[in-house]
Amino acid sequence: MTEELRFFIYLLERYGASKGVSGGEMLAQLDAKGLTEFVISLYDLYHVERLENAFADIDELLAHGLPATAPESFYGFVPLPPRGETVCNDLVDAISEDEDIEESVRAAAPAVVTDQVRRDG
User: Fold this and answer.
1) How far apart are CA 79 and CA 72, in angstroms?
2) DSSP line for the chain
């Protein structure tokens, strides 16, 4: 038995106990809504958080089903739209190597970022 499956069983038993039902009954509810695999897939998140957070998520899942953009918005975070030029690896490497940052910025993203550096500099 995998660690993920062990944790899932533990989670179901604890969640069921908090609702006054067995873990088996909770599994049946998740299965009926097609949510079992999704909850198992959240092992990496749930095994490091308080169980109550998982309980709240399961309550929402049972009440409303999977979110339209699962799992990104499921955790309460909506991805931000792109803002300006993409930062290239050359710029990141230059900054991490403590080279002349303004020159690196000009070389990597001359139009957008250089104007900001001049204003802030």
Assistant:
1) 8
2) --HHHHHHHHHHHHHHHHHTS-HHHHHHHHHHTT-HHHHHHTHHHHTTS-HHHHHHHHHHHHHH-S-TTTTTGGGT--PPPP-SSPPPHHHHHHHHTT--HHHHHHHHSTTHHHHHHHHH-
DSSP classification of residue 67: -
Output the pLDDT for position 65: 85
Q: What is the pTM of this model?
A: 0.54
Q: What does the pLDDT look like over 1-48, one tens digit per residue?
A: 888 899 999 999 999 999 999 999 999 999 999 999 989 988 888 888
User: Token match 């020159």: residue?
Assistant: 103
Q: Find the distance separating the first CA and the last CA of the chain, reported in whole Å.
A: 58
User: What pLDDT, in 10s, does the model give residues 76-103?
Assistant: 555 555 565 655 566 556 555 555 555 5
- How far is Cα 28 from Cα 32, in angstroms, rounded to an integer? 6
The span from the CA of 54 to the CA of 31, in Å, is: 17
